[in-house]
Amino acid sequence: MAEGTTSGGNAKLQFGEKSIDLPVVIGTEEEPAIDIAKLRGETGLITLDEGFVNTGSTTSAITFLDGEKGILRYRGYPIEQLAANCDFAEVAYLLIYGELPTADQMHTFRDTLRQHTIVHEDIRRFFEGFPRDAHPMAMLSSVIATLSAFYPDSTSVKDPQQLHVSMMRLLAKTPTIASYCYKKSIGQPFMYPKNDLDYSQNFLRLMFGTPAEEYEIDPVEVEALNLLLIVHADHEQNCSTSTVRMVGSSDANLFASISAGIGALWGPLHGGANEACVAMLDRIRRDNGNVEKYVDMAKDKDNNFRLMGFGHRVYKNFDPRAKIIKAACDKLLAKMKINDPIFEIAQKLEEAALTDEYFVERKLYPNVDFYSGVVYRALGIPVPMFTVMFAIGRLPGWIAHWLEMRNCPTTRINRPRQVYTGATERDFVPIDQRK
Ligand code: CMC
Q: What's the pTM?
């Protein structure tokens, strides 16, 4: 039986003359699953589940979410409590090591991160090769993969000490690298990290400071950034996390696996939705705020337009992350005395969609990406950097899952099967005889 599960009896499968019993396993939150490990061996059958809608790829003890009830917990702790009480580094520790740190453990963790914030000078020069208008996600994924070239002393996946160093390097250097993606695009000098600052303070200074003057840290901005990073920190087996686990299952190093996850996150159906969402809200604003027109477009099956930041594969009630971010939005904009027309459009659109039968029937609610862009805008983060922000937040989750996958004694290389639907065997035809 899979580790951490209890037995839930058997499920019977009848196929032609053959009947087999498949064990049902139950997770700690009473989620039942049929274990089909013996299915092909005993029946010759495989399962077909496009988009993995019904397929559990693994057991996992990191994050629990209940899409019907709108519950999200990291290592058992409700996201609302973590968002209200922790900073991002503390949540990163919790996700990676499984427990909230003691004061001593947290002190050591922060100290270790501080030792690794600077990147190799040649990595700074690496940015000279990118075009100035390169998308920051393109730069981020390639520079993260490049860490394996600059730090080959921490690429062995079998050496716990090297693994530890590669985790620390990734967590500490990613904000530095992310800020260089931004600085490159605006032609400003790259900043060196300042190690007496904490994680989020340091990042804001790397992004918005210049060598010409002292950067003043605004605690309101730090609080908002911490909150955003925390709510993005993990979300169980989503597309990018599954990618990180899959790449890692081939024994690829952590840098390479995370770089692949960044590629998966970039898509507009996943993390890229935050960028697409603000572009959509801005489009509606320029179209005289006509939200009804866009709700109608999203419902029209002949139009491929979708409401960005709406809907979720798992949440069918509400996305608890969206609730937290909307509340933070209200607070932040009031504190900063910002009147953002995009926030007003977002609220009008939400109201129109939530009272529309199409959205109600399909249980489509605002997701994490719907309001996050408004907070990023208030912090001065430009739209092309939004998905980079998501990546910084998701990093501890990716690392935790990669480690869990590596430490699980039953992990095998991830290698799905397929049902082949192409041509059956035929003979080669020389080119001069082809029609
Ligand atoms: N606007 C309009 N219709 C929608 C939307 C939307 N945003 N999302 C889903 N639908 C409809 C869809 O057309 C389908 O209708 P029907 O049953 O008539 O064919 C039904 O709702 C079910 O949608 P689906 O595409 O089968 O659902 P899925 O679970 O495969 O996709 C999703 C989930 C998030 C990709 C999808 O809701 C979507 O494209 N949303 C917009 C992009 C977005 O905001 N993505 C961020 C997700 S949260 C952040 C993250 O974790 O990445």
A: 0.93
